[in-house]
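Open question from group meeting: does this chain pack into something compact, or does most of it stay loose? Before anyone orders reagents, we agreed to write out a predicted structure and look at it together. Recording both the input and the output here so the notebook holds the full record.
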Amino acid sequence: MSQQITNDPFAAIRVQEYRYLLMGRFTFIMALRMMGTLVIWWIFQLTKRPESIGLIGLAEVIPALSMALYSGHVVDISEKRRLLLRCVFFYICAAGTLLFLSTDFVNIRLHKDYIIYGIYAVIFCTGIIRSFSGPLFASMIATVVPRNILSNATTWSQGTYLSASVTGHATGGFLIYLLGNQGTLTIVCALVFISLLILMQLKPKPANANKSEKKTLESVKEGLRFVFKTKVLLAAMSLDMFGVLFGGVTAIIAVYASDILHVGSKGFGWLNAASDIGSIIVVAMLTISPLRNKQGKKLLIAVAGFGICIIAFALSEWFVLSFFALLIGGMLDGVSVVIRGTVMQLTTPDHMRGRVSSVSQMFVNSSNELGQAESGFAAKYMGVVPSVVFGGCMTLAVMIVTWFKAPSLRKFEY
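Structure tokens returned:
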């Protein structure tokens, strides 16, 4: 019976509570991606400086990294449903503040610089919220589905995340074009509120660890020790972190759309969505037909292909070629996302899921937000195109080093 359920590609979504978790996460991530897309476009239009996009990344990653280990400890000792609902509510407040900053009332009365500072301050607060919400969503998967379908549930979760990302990125770009900043942020607020209503349907999730069992510092150290002694998990996280840190181009797409490809906010929406479209295509395929063997080697090959796609995007001056370079890069990144997520779910004991997820979020935030900062500042000092070519080459270098220095990952199978 167990084997039959494990091989069923729809096993996880047959669990009603898991469907609520997926729908709530989809709506929440879609809103986050819309807001992130808008903020990058908004800041660049206000400043016309690539480094201002880099500062957005720093504004979010500094609190996210600073809080990550502590937040993992809190997730493990807390009732997860209540904590998750609080995170979503605070995100509504953050989106509402951005909505207020976008109004004519504020634009007439405040200088542009104060609006920019206000945006950075809100993004700083969302970094704190994300340090809790990321580990919460990841750790709750194992609380609503049986362990023998965790791999299937993880694939569906990654597919949901990527679907929300592509929808949020693309919709965000189109809504900026159609409704402007204020209209787009109104929809963001509505989506986060809908997510709150959906997630309220979840049952309470008791703590995985006893509050009095360990002191905070000892608990945090335990999570770090687990990750660093689990070589396959550490190698997979590190590969993703350095690959996306150097190869991620999300932050610089606004510059390409505006100043190189000259496609405006509408083309910006499509370019923003391209990578996630590719990822969701692959995740859907892997949900129906999972990778059966040599997953570690396939992960490394996918990262190498991703680096090549980034170089192609950097050198392209043709919108269609740029779009397909990002699309194929997203497909290869989708392979990485599924394998890495499955490794984490299968290797982590239940009582440490919050802490291990928080360490994973540190790697993810390092790669995404620090990568955004790296892209912005590298574009300023190296030039836009050379900086992206450099990032693609560094991604290839990271893969080569990992291939030889982390044989446990290269030989890994599940």
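Observations to bring back to the group:
The chain has one domain: 8-202+216-410.
Residues 150-199 form the longest helix (50 residues).
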